[in-house]
Amino acid sequence: MLVLASASPRRKELLSLLVKEFEVLPADIDETPNHQEKAEEYVVRMAIEKAKAASLKYQRQADVNTSAIFIASDTSVVVDGCILGKPASLEDSRSMLRLLSGRSHQVITSLCLCNLEHEHVATKCVTSDVLFREISDVEIDQYWKTNEPKDKAGSYGIQGLGSVFVRSISGSYSAVVGLPLYETAQLLTQFGIHSLEEMSHE
């Protein structure tokens, strides 16, 4: 029994490539970075807190499966050590995309799996380098009108129209989208879930 602690349709779609059946149970947590918290530490902490919050929410349900496993992920776009969250406005989006324009940045995606009682907690952190071409202000405004950047870290989605800005990527494409498939499959095996076996069964 696997529970995805995320409302992200992208993470749901990616996880469905590895596991046929799972529940979706998003958990609301405070996503404010701590003072001087490093990006890697922040994204791992977010994934752990999401997984644990989902497990506590799950325990309050009437029908509880004690063997449930919880999976959570967090993605941050990082430039010069600065974490770029989701844009709150067009002006926010402009400042983020101007910062990313014509240069390389990091996309750090964390992963956490834990059991119901939190005796087994496993984490991974994946860093990918993404190089953007130069982006004009007109393109930024046009991109904002598509609504795609509004719920994306760093104000772009690599799996959508935002891909037109990406010259190259070094690392894990699925991690940049929101769930690192290789690392997810590796961690799932630690909890007795084998992706190839799961997907090959009728």
- Percent of sequence in beta strands: 15-25%
Oligomerization status of the protein chains: single chain
- What is the molecular shape? globular
N→C terminal distance: 17 Å
**Can you name the CATH architecture?**
Alpha-Beta Complex
Mean pLDDT: 94
- CATH top level label: Alpha Beta
Domains (count): 1
The H-and-E topology, N to C, reads as EHEHEEHEEHEHHH
State the total count of DSSP E strands.
7
Largest beta-sheet details = 7 strands, mixed
Q: Any low-confidence stretches, pLDDT <50, length ≥5?
A: none
Instruction: Round the Cα radius of gyration to an integer and report it.
Output: 17 Å
3D structure, described in words:
This protein has helices spanning 9-15, 39-59, 90-100, 137-145, 173-177, 181-190, 195-200, and strands at 2-4, 23-24, 69-79, 82-84, 104-115, 121-132, 166-170. The longest helix has 21 residues, at 39-59. The chain has one domain (2-200): Maf protein. It has seven helices and seven strands, in the order E-H-E-H-E-E-H-E-E-H-E-H-H-H. By secondary structure, it is an alpha/beta fold. The mean pLDDT is 94. The protein starts with a strand and ends with a helix. Strands 1, 2, 3, 4, 5, 6 and 7 form a seven-stranded mixed β-sheet that branches.
List keywords for this structure.
EC 3.6.1.9, ITPase-like_fam, 202 residues, UTP diphosphatase activity, alpha/beta, globular, 7 strands, dTTP diphosphatase activity, Maf protein, seven-stranded mixed sheet
